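Readers outside the structure-tokenisation community will struggle with the description of the input data as it stands. I therefore recommend that a typical entry be quoted early in the introduction. An entry of this sort, consisting of the sequence and the corresponding backbone structure tokens, reads as follows:
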Amino acid sequence: MQRVFEALSSVVRRKILAYLAHADMTAGEIAARFEISKPAVSQHLTVLENAGLVTSEKRGQFVHYRLVPDHLANTLHAYAQEVCPVSKPLKAESARIAAKRKS
């Protein structure tokens, strides 16, 4: 549980969770949405993965990240995102990405 609280203590990591709300993304796709280095994004993803909030899957040369939907912290975080003005646009972008990939 300590790892979950540490993971959620970072604004960047909470934003990453919002981006992953509807679509899986590569580390590069996630990094493109932040003004921090790719290695820093990788470190944030490692923290989230170690906390059990995201999982990764290697597909070809890319690693794709997605939420672990059954994790209680993700469920609570999704609920909080519904009322959080910062997360709403990020989740909307995630939904657009998911819709685009389905078509």
Notes: The mean pLDDT is 85.
